[in-house]
Amino acid sequence: KKRMTYLPNSVFTSEVLVNVSRTTGWKFDELIRLRRLFSLEEKVEEMRHMLTHHPRVDGSKPIYTFVKSLTHLFVEIEIQASIVASNEEEFMEVKQELLLAIYRSAEPAFV
User: Fold this and answer.
1) Which of 47, 64, 67, 105 could pair with 80 in a Cys bridge, judged by C-beta atoms 3.0 to 4.6 Å apart?
2) DSSP-assigned beta bridge partners for residue 93
3) What's the N-to-C CA distance of the chain in angstroms?
4) For residue range 29-69, what is the model confidence (pLDDT) as tens digits?
5) What's this model's pTM, rounded to 2 decimal places?
6) Maximal C-alpha separation, the chain
7) What are phi and psi of 47, to 5 degrees?
8) What is the pLDDT at residue 39?
9) 90: exposed, middle or buried (C-beta count within 10 Å: 0-12, 13-18, 19+)?
């Protein structure tokens, strides 16, 4: 529910205010579950390489591509990166592009 909130000026003298509309770094944080139909090391490295070389992924911030869990049926790969985008729509476009690239590279293995 949206409600009008009044904040006294004294709040702004002691608190840091973040304008989200000016955010340029958006967090890409996904958990990908794949069947174990491929070389795990190669697939993780391929995803890491794709993120590292993508023009909208911020290379100055950490890029994580790690196996989170492993069973006899599937593997979960955790992927985290910072996306450079000036608004949510741009971020969602880049996120979709990355997810589709991940899907294409591992399509037969998706659970």
Assistant:
1) 64
2) none
3) 36
4) 999 998 877 788 888 899 999 999 999 999 999 999 999 99
5) 0.72
6) 59
7) -65, -45
8) 80
9) middle
